[in-house]
Specification:
Blueprint lengths: L5 E7 L2 E9 L7 E5 L6 H8 L2 H6 L3 E6 L21 H15 L6 E6 L1 H12 L6 E5 L19 E6 L6 E2 L2 E2 H14 L4 E5 L8 H4 L2 H10 L20 E3 L1
Length: about 250
């Protein structure tokens, strides 16, 4: 695709999917790939989750996939038939074209998403560990069908794992607090950073996005691909009090 702020159509694997794009004029900044929740939209969630002006001012861009027409190949869903493993081909295309056209920093390719979109982001944590620098999951985690082999077994991305209370952060029979805890176990086993943010709220609570917006971009900026040593020996003061390093 040719990128511009607004709606951009991305083609991959014989199909197309629409995105909503926020981009700066200078380039050279981070790329955030965003996957929205069931029945939602990137145009609604992204401005809650990120300071889009700060991202674009840093020469970065956010590409939020929109799935209203379900234009991804409908095989191997990573959740409840919203996003699919095959949709990651569209993310690959976005990454390649953003590096070529906008000169985004290839060490700063990040993934984020809410609910079904968080499960897709977790899938990318596995399946695109070869280029994903860090991931934010808002009510996601490990539900088995979003697992995959590591693309790069030597690299596991740093993570911010946001969720609500067990028994409250539930949708479609999935307890996302428990799923998040299961994923955190895998993150730690892989030797990566896991920041747990349990806000104690229900699943459908967009405050989960906005309450972390003051730190979401900073978390990504502080965690480029393969950063060593880990910069967070303690959480920066701007993080909510309910967040902790696992």
């Amino acid at each position: 695709p040719t990128f511009a702020t607004g709606v951009v159509t991305v083609a991959a694997g014989g199909g197309t999917i629409q995105t909503q794009t926020w981009m700066g004029a200078t380039g050279g900044g981070p790329l955030i790939v965003y996957w929205h929740a069931t029945g939602s939209a990137a145009t609604y969630e992204v401005p809650l989750a990120f300071d889009t002006a700060a991202v674009t001012a840093a020469g970065g861009m956010i590409v939020g996939f929109e799935s209203a027409t379900r234009t991804g190949t409908p095989t191997n869903t990573t959740g409840n038939d919203v996003w699919y493993q095959s949709d990651v081909a569209f993310a690959d295309q976005v990454v390649a074209c953003a590096i070529q056209q906008v000169h985004v920093d290839p060490r700063h390719i990040h993934a984020a998403g809410y609910s079904a979109g968080a499960l897709q982001s977790v899938y990318m944590w596995f399946a695109r560990s070869g280029y994903v620098a860090s991931v934010i999951s808002y009510s996601g985690g490990d539900v088995t069908i979003d697992e995959a082999a590591f693309q790069d077994p030597a690299h596991a991305a740093a993570t911010l794992v946001a969720h609500g209370a067990p028994g409250a952060d539930v949708y479609g029979g999935v307890d996302f607090a428990n799923a998040s805890a299961a994923w955190e176990t895998q993150i730690k086993q892989a030797g990566a950073l896991a920041i747990d943010c349990n806000d104690g709220q229900a699943h459908v609570d967009v405050m989960r996005l906005s309450s972390l917006a003051p730190v979401s971009l900073k978390f990504f900026q502080d965690h480029p691909f393969g950063v060593k040593p880990e910069p967070y020996t303690a959480l920066p003061a701007a993080f909510p009090s309910y967040c902790k390093i696992q």
